Amino acid sequence: MKFMRLPIVALLLPLIVITLCSCGNKKLVTCREVIASLTESEVGLPAGKVYDMRADEGNDEHLAASLLCALYGNGGKPTAADSWVDCAIFLSATEHPCEFAVFLCDSRDSAIDTARALSMRLDTVRLTKKAPQYCQMLESARVTIIKNYVVLIISSDAENALKTAKKQIG
Questions:
Q1: Nearest-CA neighbor of 100 among 29, 56, 46?
Q2: Are strands 142-146 and 149-154 parallel, antiparallel or unpaired?
Q3: Integer Rg of the chain from CA
């Protein structure tokens, strides 16, 4: 009887291990998916454009290194750029300051460095968009780290946008 239990346990053990491992391997959401959720939930979204690091180079939505440098590196390559696994941004095509950026970093340390770069971008937007109708929007804007994702939110409802990002990222 003991000999019969051993083969059954030997067959079941790999199934149990596979099942347990698959629970921990949740697929990472792409930055583009997070941007899509943010733009869909934004009330009064201005005309704008989504740029995606994963888009092919010839694609109109390709996020070029030169744009990343201009927005987040003061013209040079941002220090954390080599640690970016994925990135997508939404930029308003008008004077409206609505803007979203989502970066997936390879470590918590690089997420912190990326948050600094996005905070500098937020400071720049706050300095250049001084129209009174945008004051509240810019005051509530934020840069947040969620797991290894860094999110820049300039939204008409930053709290709702943050909830949307957290829900999407998981």
A1: 46
A2: antiparallel
A3: 21
Backbone angles phi, psi at 45, to 5 degrees: -60, 125
CA separation for the pair 97, 131 (Å, rounded): 10
Please give the C-alpha separations between residue 118 and each of 24, 36, 38, 83, 108, in angstroms, as whole numbers.
30, 19, 17, 14, 15
- Take residue 34 and report the two structure tokens written for it: 């997070």
Pairwise CA distance, residues 90 & 165, whole Å: 14
63-94 pLDDT, tens digit per residue, is 999 999 999 998 899 989 999 999 999 999 99
Joined together, the tokens standing for residue 137 give 């929007």
Q: How far apart are CA 135 and CA 97, in angstroms?
A: 10
Number of CB atoms found within 10 A of residue 70's CB: 13
* Residues paired with 50 in a beta bridge: 90
- pTM > 0.90: no
